[in-house]
């Protein structure tokens, strides 16, 4: 949700900022802008829309030349996408880029208006720039500390003052920000991919810290000006990992990375053929002490939690409640110190999920997070963290992060089931063996690409479609439906197959596509009956099932057969055709697959 960058070094600042912003465009693409010191004065260039609009505007007009500056790519919250609402905001003296939301901006705006300030944009960020200008006393650190005590909400800020043409200032609260440390050059960025071309070393800025960055120094203080010492972090992946590597889209690349990232996530959590979450501090004794487990997350991550619920309840016999974070946080949930609250988040920065984590801690529940981005807020604030090792997920539509989240759900369920005595050691070993076979099965499932592309060509003119399934297939079909609608813009809904006839079947008319997922042996006959019901009403049925499943040819119009593993683990393999159908449908409809409209990768506002 908005990306910010900053550069101080010998290179061409505009080039570096534009390159770094291109790595953060997944965080928002409503507008882009930069502020660069040119001949010791702040020069601002900005444009509505994608980064390329800014590039074209500068090519046709003026391209700032300098060595220090800040940049922004926007996901609009306050004020429509427009040139005027684009960041940076400020005046000749101070310029600001911001990721987050200033909740008390109206109050600040009134205060400043009384002092004679005029506002040109509808943004909350402009109030920060003007507040800095109002309180500026020649000492940027003091001024920033002063205004941080006055603003409420979430922010990562990059700031430059015309009096300090070799320096960037940065601060954060509840929005991510890193300080990249290079050789003779330093950076700020919302996320690691922005700096990987230049350095893999960085500091994590904490809440209410202020960083002062020049080309050869980084100093960090708290709001009282006391120096803070930090451990230098090192990114575990390089620039190549954040590039497309010959794939047409990041989404397709990330779908194909799934076997590899699954191995990377699962293998360190297996010891002598048994689940071993102890490496994350999670012991079997601790697991069996919980009365209830809540899994809370948003979007795709919540869908991973739903699979977790089915598997944990079935294998470990512990009650699991799954909820979306934006609902959970406001419904006064009954949680206490005997409960476990598990948060799942790729980015580790999702505002609602983070709020649930804080609520759970307030209620003294034990918190475990399943997070992909190392050092992110959710990872740092939870009692225990299980990192997924998916590497950078750039495509806005999540794919590999989902499958690795599933793998953690399984490991967790196995370890808990064993701790509860609900499965034997032998059964656990068999499950682990099966889990280890999944990457290879996913590799084989890539063979369905052509079939999925063909199916995509049949879906491109659909107005709406249904996904149906039972049990784990229902949990997975929710994810399939989300994937399709978010990138192809075709409306779709997911239903428990048995629920259709309680209302939704009235939507089924001649030619309506219905994607039926039927990978669960014990529910197969029931799902087949539901398929017959929609088929009898004219639906065009696409059936996703195991290659070992034998069904009559006329059950479905198209069949997608995938390699089989134990039923409990099928969602990981069956996710692939779901992702591919969504991908190819979107590509064939000419959609911007990696950057679907209105979305951003990391939702840091509620
Ligand atoms: C959909 C998608 C989103 C995210 C959701 C949570 O493809 O990616 O639904 O899953 O915004 O994000 P994280 O996992 O970063 O908390």
Care to describe what's here?
This protein is α/β, with parallel strands linked by helices and about 600 residues long. About 35% of the residues lie in helices and about 25% in strands. The strands form five sheets. An eight-stranded antiparallel sheet has the order 3-2-4-1-10-9-11-14, with helices on one face. A six-stranded antiparallel sheet has the order 5-6-7-8-12-13. A five-stranded parallel sheet has the order 18-17-19-20-21, sandwiched between helices. Helix 17 (about 525-535) links the parallel strand 24 and strand 25 (about 540-545). Helix 14 (about 425-445) packs parallel to helix 18, helix 15 packs across helix 18 and helix 16 (about 470-490) packs parallel to helix 18 (about 570-590). It is globular. The model has no long low-confidence stretch (mean pLDDT about 95). The site of fructose -6-phosphate has 15 residues, from helix 9 and helix 16. Fructose -6-phosphate binds near residues 300, 347 and 486.
